[in-house]
Amino acid sequence: MRIALIAPPWPIFNRPSIQVAALAAYIRKRLPQVECRCFYPYLSLYEKIGAQLYGIISDSSWASEAIGAMLLTPGYEDQQAELAIRMIKDGDAKKRLNRDTILEVRDSLQSVLGELLGSLDWSGYDFVGITVSLNQLCSGLYLAKEIKHLSPSTKIVMGGASVSGTAGEAILNTFPFIDFVVSGEGEGALYSLIHSYLEAKPIDETFIRAEELKDMDSLPPPDFSDFFEELQRLPPEKRFIPVLPVEFSRGCFWGRCTFCNLNLQWKGYRSKSSNRMAREVLWLSRRYGVLDFAFMDNALPPKEMSEFFREIRERGVDLKFFGELRASISRELAQELGASGLKTVQVGIESLSPTLLRRLRKGRSVMDNIATMRHLLEAGISLEGNLILDFPGSSEKEVEETMEALRFARYFKPLKAVSFWLGLGSPVFSRSDEFQIRYMRPHRNYKTLFPEHSPSETMVYEYGGTLKRDRALWKRVRREIGEWHRYWNEHARHIPPLTYRDGGDFVLIRQVLDKGTVLQHRLQGLSRKIFLEMLEPIEIKAIMERNPGVSSESLHSFLEDLHVKGLIFKEGVKVLALPVRNRKI
Ligand code: SF4
What we know:
Elements: E1 2-6, H1 18-30, E2 35-39, H2 42-49, H3 51-58, H4 61-72, H5 77-87, H6 91-96, H7 99-119, E3 127-131, H8 137-150, E4 155-159, H9 165-174, E5 180-183, H10 186-198, E6 207-209, H11 225-232, E7 244-246, E8 249-250, E9 270-271, H12 274-288, E10 292-295, H13 302-315, E11 320-325, H14 331-339, E12 342-350, H15 354-360, H16 366-378, E13 382-389, H17 396-409, E14 416-419, E15 422-423, H18 427-430, E16 439-442, H19 445-449, E17 460-464, H20 467-491, E18 498-502, E19 506-512, E20 518-524, H21 525-533, E21 538-539, H22 540-546, H23 552-564, E22 568-571, E23 574-577, E24 580-581
Helix pairs in contact: 1-10, 2-3, 2-7, 4-5, 4-7, 4-8, 12-13, 13-14, 14-16, 17-20
């Protein structure tokens, strides 16, 4: 028996697909009699159109899907090219691209997928599994359609985030060339399908809600060998050393954010043990000669993560990691993580308004968010975080609170402004009334992707209610975030704009103001001591207890002075000193 696993365009090109590599490892281990081949046609597409253009397109899901849709449903190129250009995020690239350049990209995609389709006798494959996560749906559907056409007896199985939940069922019902859709994690489902087939048992279910694996330590490490073989076939000047995706956990231990629809894909939260994770990463590093890893987790498991990074640090190897964290990092932990190779993190900041954070059900305060931003900057860890704007039913109060907090957040790496989008199955979707949403329907862009047969349920919805008002309210925050980026680009390229150096019995604080004016502040003796105590969020009451000789009045006026100058952040009864230590100036 023979199966093929395919990761279609357009994921980030310098990473193998974790889905394909994990499935291949699982099937090869549990069903060694089955020949399993993996294909990563996006590597050839990157080779054909170049890293820059590939990156510009894969940075936008709608653009990636629109170009894939041109192959799936030919004859609607004008609308699809227009959608692709409109959705490209890079402003300069948007100006350069036109219908003809998009059609050239479409031709390159067609030629790359055509090469894959023509290179194999598909009738020799009993199953073809196609993973369709971010950006991959339309290219994946096109491959499915063509393979079915070439070999009607081959069973087509689709899985991945884009076909989770009822959206997956709708895809299955819309496209007759798909035999099975797996919603959720694929290992157990694919194994059962193949096993039943080998035993000649009938398979009744075509939409399979996968059972979740309980013990992640029992999984074999992902098998990236096919990716490296394809990489080797590229011309030498196009080869690169990839970033390897790895999984520490699946699901989310919080799982309550109202805007999030990841629950469609995952239910329970499970993680590998720290020791197992460390062994896996070190083994993958040696096996493939790679030093860069990206954790695919929704949020790294807090306890195991600290132990894992400690183990990596003790090995003394120069590994680098990307991972996603919840905003609850202490100063000490940030330093440890930074020293262990965690170089870039995505943190679910989402908001700097306490009122909105409550509505988002983030379970974090503005103080948690600002402290995390501070500690990461100090530890040399690059933060990628978003601020959600235009959330349904926004209030003037939420905007005011955000504007106030931005005065202090500006000293840390700027966040990206993102508009709220309505995802199928998110709490906002399920309890739309609570968020003043009057109607919801599949996003209109799907009609452009699937002009002939649009699935009845889709992953992204458009909605009506307070949208117009929400957008108008958040306009000034959007502008302010633009200013924040400008300020950072102009004044913080080399040194963060708010830093301190400790002189033993005094500290010197360097503060760069809006227009680039530099202020120096000196805090002596007791003022220095209190300042250092505030490098983690601390209650004012606790400062009083630690410094019994200081009167409440003088402490409050000292704190007020620092607050007015933008040197400390206050929330409720807590304060936090914002300057980050800089020993390099
Ligand atoms: S946004 Fe992140 S933390 Fe919140 S529920 Fe989703 S995965 Fe979990």
